[in-house]
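tool=predict chain=A
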Amino acid sequence: ILIHDLFTLNLAESYSGSGSGEEVTLKSGTVLRNPTQEMWAGMKVVEKKGSAQLYFDGASRNNPHGPCGYGFHIGTDDAHSCNLIQGSGYAGMERSSNEMEYEGLIEGLIWATRLDLKRLTIVGDSELIINQLIGKYAVNNDRLRALYEKVQDLLAKASDLEVTYRHIPRGSNQIADSLANQAIATRVNVTTCNWRNINALMAVDMSRYE
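tool=predict ok
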């Protein structure tokens, strides 16, 4: 779905995205659907290995009444911190920055759980979101609770993934922040995979299984 073109041409009314795919509702009432496709369709997992860090962020101009977007990036959890996947998404209007933080995390988790990792560190600059994820803070807002439950559903489906959380200062989350603001500026949803680094991370010595 070419979201940017549809909004620019004043044809689209709204956009929504979830783990099952994306939907754009046109002003004519027609709904365009783009289902999520698995990254490794038809492939069998031989060995879960490696670790990565998922950074996420969200932005809402004139919070919560203006345009809003989210960003995430996933890198290897080592001294080199090689980039694996990064993405940004425009989410329309009238949503809070906290909601966008969760949307960035959800989209990032969808991709991270396709990497067949052994360990994942979730990293964010929102004290509220990180503390809700570790159970220190209650999730009292109904809209945040719905997003929180999506996160828990994704983690439950990857039950053998070791997940830890880390809160960082905002200044240390510049890539995800930049991606979230890029989404607002361009109104384009973009995900980029560094296949060289992904393949290196997931490479398995098949001689061990012969």
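The chain has a mean pLDDT of 85. Residues 130 and 136 are 9 Å apart (CA to CA).
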